[in-house]
Known about the structure:
The complex is a heterodimer. By secondary structure, chain A is an alpha/beta fold. Chain A has one domain: 3-Layer(aba) Sandwich (Glutaconate Coenzyme A-transferase), CATH 3.40.1080.10. Helix content of chain A is about 15%, strand content about 25%. Chain A is built from five helices and 13 strands. The radius of gyration of chain A is 18 Å and the shape is globular. Chain B is an alpha/beta fold. Chain B has one domain (about 5-115, about 150-230): Glutaconate Coenzyme A-transferase, CATH 3.40.1080.10. The interface between A and B is large, with 40 and 53 residues.
Amino acid sequence: MERLNEIKLKNAQIAWRAAQDIEEGSYVNLGIGFPEMIAQYQPEGRDVIYHTENGILGFGGAPTKGQEDWDLINAGKKAVTIKPGSAFFHHADSFAMVRGGHLDLAVLGAYQVAENGDLANWSTGKGGVPAVGGAMDLVHGAKRVAVVTDHITKDGKAKLLNRCTMPLTGVECVTRVYTSLAVIDIKDKQFLLREKLATVSFDEPQTVTGAKLSTGKHVIDLSVPDL
Amino acid sequence: MDKTVDNLAAAVSLIDDGSTVMIGGFGGSGAPIELIHALIDQRTKELTIVNNNAGNGDVGLAAMIREGMVTKLICSFPRSADPRAFTDLYLANKIELEIVPQGTLAERIRSGGAGIPAFYTPTGFGTEIANGKPVKEFDGKSYVEERWLKADFALIKAELGDPLGNLTFRMAARNFNPLMAMSAHHTIAQVSKVVPVGKINPEQIVTPGIFVQQIVEVLNPAQEEDLNQCKTYYPEVVN
Lengths: 227, 239
C-alpha cells in the first residue's frame, strides 16, 4: 500500500490522461472540482466545446485576478471567460442538452464505482448536508460517462467495488474509470484493466480493488508526463 | 399598461407569511439580492423557498435563512463557500430540506409554468431520489415520474425590462430566472435598467412580459460575491 501511494499518479496526471481521450468536436461537461482540471490538458489543436450546466457552452479558462465578472461563472461558481462562439441559455435548455443525449461526454469524480457501472458521488450517507447538483442528470444524459479518481480512499479503502455502499448517483452509467494506477473500462458488468502504470505488477491493482479486475492480453502501460 | 413599481419595499409588499417563493440565481449570478433584502426588511415568515442553492455568507438568501424566515428549502445544492446559515439550522432540525437534482428542479419549475403536471425523467432512477415515486418503462428504459413545481411569488433578476415586463438577461445570470418567471403566480423582477416600451428588440426578449407582473429598477445591482468579499452582513447591525 505504501509503495502504491508513492508511485501513484497525481490528480493533474489523471486529468491529463483523461484529456487525451476527448475527441475532436466533442461537447463535454466536466464535474466540479477535480474533473475541471481536464480542460487544462486538452491537446493542442483539438477543438472541444465545454458545457457548464448553469448555462454556458464554449466557455474558456479563468480570467486574470481582478477581472472576474460574477455573472460569468461555471458550475463550481468559479469565474470563467467566454470565447468566440459561446452561447448562454437558461436551465431548462441546459438540462435538455444533458438529458436529451446531446453531450458526448461527462467526466465526474467518485466516492465509489461498482463493476456494473453504478456511481456514488453525491452523499456519503453518513449525515451532514446532502447536495446533488447536476450529477444525477449528467450520468443518464451524456453519451459517455467517465470517472476520474484516486484508486483508493485516503484511508486505504477500495473505491472500485462489487457494489457501491454509499447512496447512488446513477445506475449502470460509468463506462471508463481513470485512476491513479490504471485505466479501467466497464463492460458486461466487469472491470477490464486497459492500462496500468509500468511500475506496478499485474496483481497489484487487484489488491486495492474491491471487485475482480479482468486482465486481457491487451493491457498497455499507462504513461503520463511529469506534471 | 405599466408594471413598474417605484421602490423595492412596495414590490415585495404583497408577499405574505407562509408563501412559496421562487428566487432566481445560481450561486450569486442572477440572484436578486436587493429584492431579497427588501423581503428581509419586511420580516415575512414561514416561507417555502425554491432556489438552486442555500445562500452564501451573510447576505441575500443566506441572510434570509439565518433570520429564521424560511421553514422549508427546495434546492439542488445547499453548499457554498460559506454555507453556515443553512447548515447550522439544518443540523439543528430547524429547517426542512427537499433535495432535487438540478435538471429535475429546472424541469419541475418549467412544467409548473407550462401547465404540465408531471413528467418522466431518467434522472434519479435507482437512487433514493426516486423513493416513493412512480417508475415507468419507455422503449426499454426506466424513468421516474416527477411533479410540477409552482409558487405564489418569484423574485428574479434581469438586465433590461420595459413597462410591459419584457426582459433580457445578462450572460449566465439567466439560469433559473426565465423559468421561475413562468411558474410563479406573481413574478417580481428587479431589472438593472427600465427602458421605454419598444426599446428592446423583440428578437432579443428572453422572457415575454406575459410572465411578469411587476418590475422594479435597481441600478448597479450588488453581486453576492462582491458583498461577501467585503464581509457584508445583512441586515446591518445597528449599535
